[in-house]
Amino acid sequence: MNKITxxxxxxxxxxxxxxxxxxxxxxxxxxxxxxxxFLDAGGSFIDTSNNYAHWAxxxxxxxxxxxxxxxxxxxxxxxxxxxxxxxxxxxxxxxLRAAQIEHWVNESLRKLRTDYIDLYYAHTDDYDTPLExxxxxxxxxxxxxxxxxxxxxxxxxWRFAEANATAAAQGxxxxxxxxxxxxxxxxxxDLPPKSRFNEPTGRERLRYLADKNIPLVAYSCLAxxxxxxxxxxxADLIAGDRLAFLRSMAAEKGxxxxxLAVAWMTxxxxxxxxxxxxxxxxxxxxxxFLDSLRGVDLTLTxxxxxxxxxx
Length: 311
Ligand SMILES: NC(=O)c1ccc[n+]([C@@H]2O[C@H](COP(=O)([O-])OP(=O)(O)OC[C@H]3O[C@@H](n4cnc5c(N)ncnc54)[C@H](OP(=O)(O)O)[C@@H]3O)[C@@H](O)[C@H]2O)c1
Hints:
By secondary structure, this protein is of the alpha/beta class. It has a single domain (about 5-310), classed as TIM Barrel, CATH 3.20.20. Helix content is about 40%, strand content about 15%. It is built from 10 helices and 10 strands. It has helices spanning about 30-40, 60-75, 100-110, 130-145, 155-170, 205-210, 240-255, 255-265, 285-295, 300-310, and strands at about 5, 10, 15-20, 45, 80-85, 115-120, 145-155, 175-180, 215-220, 275-280. α4 links the parallel β6 and β7. The longest helix has 15 residues, at about 100-110. About 50% of the residues are buried. The site of NADP nicotinamide-adenine-dinucleotide phosphate has 27 residues, from β10 and α9.
């Protein structure tokens, strides 16, 4: 798998591994096997958060499991580690006040057993804290060497732009990566979003990212397993002809629909109006993970991309 260099200079694998369930619903041994397989395949970009997966445990498990794996394999220098701050963990942790950011970064570093984080995301917006305070606190982490780059997740596009304008006005560090829900299937327009968090990426957001040369890390990009099994498809996605087309092209090419969805995302920046997209996906099983990862090495022709886009 060839690595890609992002506009912010981070060099990453073209797909990212989601560690959200590691240490909770994906037990430690299975997590280690998936991490080993990803590294062996040339993968490097790994995603976690300071609160994963608190709904199934304490919220420390994912970072702790990754820290144990990094120590056991002595591979910190081969990994690009992304983690996040700002979401709830059992009633604590929500918010992006300076004191919260300073506290949680140290907790993440301790659990991950590292002295730096490659990419540190605001996990979701905090309307109650001035952007000046949040962006200044993040900038101090960069200057202190605890964090290399910043990202924003689950922000409205205009608020992401305001955060970056605030950083620029302060002479600070901007968000250079956005993480948002995005997949091949279109969302249903007739359902109100469950929350700001989890809102699917629309065309306007994609155009903004393309224009600003900001990569999109696409979460839940395998539709929660829905390309492999209908019953897993989230109810707010439209399946219909587009899913049927994806599956038929996948069958013709001899790959799974999950792998073709990954390939569509890694090739999308070749199409006008789309940013670089890095699919971020997860599995509890090595064979499923590697099946999806095959998409990274699939090159799609312009005609195939056009047909997928139009379906
Ligand atoms: N920023 C945020 O707010 C946010 C929100 C959600 C997630 N995330 C990040 O994104 C990562 C992935 O998100 P996600 O888990 O929501 O969505 P996802 O990657 O779209 O879906 C994961 C599911 O897909 C199934 N799957 C994967 N490959 C498969 C294959 N080849 N065949 C059959 N099933 C397959 C897995 O089932 P099996 O276990 O059976 O393989 C798993 O349950 C998380 O780990 C986390 O790092 C971020």
